[in-house]
Specification:
Homeodomain-like_sf; alpha+beta; RNaseH-like_sf; Integrase_cat-core; nucleic acid binding; Arc Repressor Mutant, subunit A
């Protein structure tokens, strides 16, 4: 078996897996089996999913967090998390895709001549090692981007 696996460039574990699979059922084609779990113990119950959809139907503008709080106030024992509620709403086509924000390309403005415009920027205060405050202020020429001073 080791020589055969080496020849095909697979591990011995994979070789034995395929051999055992062939011996189990020779008529079935040798193909990968589904990796889907046989059962999902943590799956949201149908009752909880129905409760989420009912609250959404009563209040179409509410989002997952508000629906979560409402279900808690109503005394439901199995309240899904807001992220699970969002997944339930999406799965049942109850969330409308919001329009994406259109980002415009950044256009850098620049004056035609040096010293035509200076940009002044206060950088915020911070403490020096001797416990005094420093208030940095930068002055920048808009045309050349030359730093005229830091005060």
């Amino acid at each position: 078996m080791a020589e055969l696996c080496r020849r095909f460039g697979i591990s011995r574990k994979t070789g034995y897996k395929w051999r055992n699979r062939f011996q189990e059922d020779q008529l079935a084609p040798l193909s990968d089996r589904s990796r889907r779990p046989a059962h999902s113990p943590g799956k949201t119950s149908l009752e909880a999913e129905d409760a989420v959809l009912q609250v959404r139907e009563d209040h179409p503008a509410w989002g997952p967090r508000k629906i979560h709080k409402r279900l808690q106030r109503l005394g439901h024992s199995d309240v899904p998390s807001p992220s699970t509620i969002a997944a339930i709403l999406k799965r049942n086509d109850r969330i409308e895709a919001s329009e994406s924000i259109k980002h415009r390309a950044f256009t850098r403005f620049e004056r035609a001549e040096p010293n035509e415009l200076w940009q002044v920027d206060f950088k915020g205060e911070f403490r020096l090692s001797d416990r005094r405050y420093c208030y940095p202020l930068t002055v920048l020429d808009d045309h050349s981007r030359f730093s005229l001073g830091i005060a």
